[in-house]
Request: fold
Amino acid sequence: MAVTPSTVETTTVVEIAVSSIKVNTRLRATDHDKVRDIAESVEGLGRLLHPICVSNHGDEYHLLSGLHRLESFKYLGRKTIPATIQEADPLLEELIEVEENLVSAKLSAIDEARFIVRWEDILKQLGRRAKTGDNRWNRSALTSKDLAKSRGMSRATYLYTKSIANLHPEVQDLLNETDWSQNKMDLVNLAKEKDAVQLEVAFLLTTGECSSFKRALTLSRIKHHPFNWKAEQTRVKDLIGKPFSVQKFNGNSSDLSMLCKLVSEDESCKVTKHEWGTQSSPLAAMHPDHSAYFINYYSNEGDLVLDPFAGRGTVPLVAAALGRKVVAYDLSSDNLEKIKDAALQHTGISSEDLTLHHSCGVALDHYKNDEDNFDLILTDPPFLFGVEQYGEDPRDLCQVKTVDGYVTKMTECLTNLKRLIKPSCWETKEFHPIVLKVGSGRRSSQGLIDLATEFEIIARGLGLVLHDKLINVLDSQWGMFNVSRCIDHKYSVKVHETCLVLVKY
Reply:
């Protein structure tokens, strides 16, 4: 229901000539289907249910509301139409037109925000919009709660929608006729960004360089954001020593998160997601702060860090940003190329300190004769019965179909990792661990396969020492994925993974 100021008085309904009514420039186009529907209703009922509203301008009338009703009478060839007449007032005329469009027009989210802002502006000029400091128990002016209620919204939704008008005017014009103009959440988030980012997003979307709003926003933020890795080192060092019984790193907008999104959110990452009924699994990537925690805790600037299963590049990118030298393996050359580009462009690491191998992280064939090379090995190995596959490469651990086959592969992997990690010393408190982030796998005929237990057994057999074990809470998207999958199969909902810290003495 539209809010109309009390100064607008309804007069007697009179018949006026259709030809005497002037239609000024309209804020929205005429809907011809709606015109025909009204015409059919008029003919069926024999009358117009609601008169139009006009203002008196001497020899002519200006239409205030009822464009579709007026057009329906023209369509029927009627000479006169029922109307109420108001005294001429440009501000009131615009108010009525804005209200009518807010109530009846099919608006994009951008147009809706524009109209709401203009609506409030007119009400303020008419003295009908409440101001800060007004007595809330004794006033006639309208609050944002009142305005929201008139729009059939909660106050929060109303303010949320209104904030879209903060978009740069050029961005509003570029996006308004596109599909992106309907997504309020994306537009609200974009409106919070500085103008340069907003304009870059609009350019990427409208030129087709990005097909995803999320990707366009990531690229635009990075383009116009100066990274400060010294500040990030200080921030993540503060995580050390905090009392964790369970590690949980929530999503944030840190520089590290922004950097890792260059790869983790890239639409062209070549990976096949497993479908669980109607539910697609989220694409897995270690949380940047999770990687940073272990990198800061167990290594120093200039140390050499290995990730034998780089995936979407969280570990190598975080290590590079925190001043470490990096070696990484992966079976996807596309992923490695994206990791390389992001690291060299944004972290300051030299090409000599960044080594990426398009090969198998199990065999580690570039280091067959080496020992004690790495200060830290940190990785998130592919899970058994994996939800992601890079292709048909037989070296892909997601291709392994049995528990015994997976254990055999990971035994080979850990044997090589043990050889390549530097030895630790309890007396000097020098630790060079192999940190594995592992979860569980399920296969209906084989039940729950707890990979942490399997890795512990493998490590003990190889003479590695379990130095520490941490529980890592998964992001909420994984929790929701697991809920939908587990209920169907009477599983408990697993929203955690285990981090094993292994050392050799």
